[in-house]
Design a protein that fits this description.
The radius of gyration is 18 Å and the shape is globular. By secondary structure, the protein is α+β, with helices and mostly antiparallel strands. It starts with a helix and ends with a strand. The chain has a 10-stranded antiparallel β-sheet with strand order 1-3-4-5-2-7-10-9-8-6. 19% of the residues lie in helices and 33% in strands.
């Protein structure tokens, strides 16, 4: 079979140096819609948006960690690990978790160490967990887990792993916001490092089973975290401690995201749906832990 679980799990971790600067941070922020706040009359000059887009005021949204160093958050790199040989057209990003150990600097150089932390047999698919731990000279910065869903590669009798499904949030959400996705959002976001043609090439998208290119799941992930920070955390990116989600459905560029938030002092539950498709689920089992 294309996935040799024993070989992949036994493989030595891969380490390498990554670096980023303010331009990388600004490009990422633009890729998730910064500078276009629909809640403000003049978003381009809104001081709240300038903290994401102007180098003299720049703060780093923690989800930037998923692309820092122009990497593809473990999804593409995970497919090149020993014991993993799969068709990219069968691959979907199933989920993402991020733990922030310290606020991300605007400019940095760090060492990223990656390994396959788990492989789950879901019957008709396999789920690879690609863990990346990043540290600089001062110590750990963040830990990223990417859940890589590979259709048609299950059924070898391996551990099914945790379900990851949570009970639905109780009651009505504390806040609901909508965020439009530009028609060219995926083309802009991919400049931060995730070059999968699924998000740009119509023919490739059709081969993968989609009517047209879809938005990167991690773009939706970033849009959602920004909405939580701006709406409930006073715009303070340093309050975020961790962020986990399951990608429950696709988003097509040009659609509108409806982001529902259930807020407590220590965490916020979130559900995201596509407005134009009868609130089709997009992100589920989503939690931001914060101060």
């Amino acid at each position: 079979m294309p996935i040799d679980a024993a070989k992949a799990l036994a493989a030595a971790p891969r380490s390498g140096e990554i670096s980023w600067n303010s331009k990388d941070v600004q490009l990422y922020h633009l890729g998730i819609g910064a500078g276009a706040n629909p809640d403000k009359a003049s978003p381009a000059t809104d001081p709240d948006e300038l903290r994401y887009t102007l180098e003299s005021r720049l703060h780093v949204l923690p989800s930037f960690a998923t692309v820092a160093g122009s990497g593809s958050p473990g999804v593409i790199s995970g497919l090149s690990m020993p014991g993993i040989e799969v068709d990219l057209a069968r691959v979907l990003h199933g989920g993402q978790s991020l733990t922030i150990h310290r606020p991300l600097p605007v400019t940095g150089t760090a060492t990223a160490t990656s390994r396959i932390a788990a492989i789950h047999d879901k019957g008709k698919a396999a789920v690879l967990v690609m863990r990346t731990e990043v540290a600089d000279a001062e110590g750990p910065l963040w830990t990223n887990d990417a859940q890589i869903f590979v259709r048609g590669e299950g059924g070898w009798g391996g551990d099914r792993g945790p379900s990851g499904r949570l009970e639905p949030p109780a009651g009505e959400p504390d806040r609901v916001v909508e965020r439009p996705v530009r028609e060219d959002q995926a083309l802009l976001y991919r400049l931060s490092g995730d070059w999968n043609p699924l998000h740009a090439d119509p023919e490739f998208a059709k081969v993968a089973g989609f009517e047209r290119p879809i938005l990167h799941g991690l773009c939706t992930y970033g849009i959602t975290l920004k909405a939580v920070v701006d709406t409930l955390l006073g715009g303070d990116v340093t309050r975020v401690r961790s962020y986990v989600t399951r990608f429950a459905g696709v988003v097509y560029p040009g659609e509108t995201l409806r982001i529902r938030m259930w807020h407590t002092p220590a965490s916020t539950r979130i559900a995201v749906s596509a407005v134009e498709r009868d609130d089709a689920p997009v992100l589920a089992d989503t939690i931001v832990e914060h101060t």
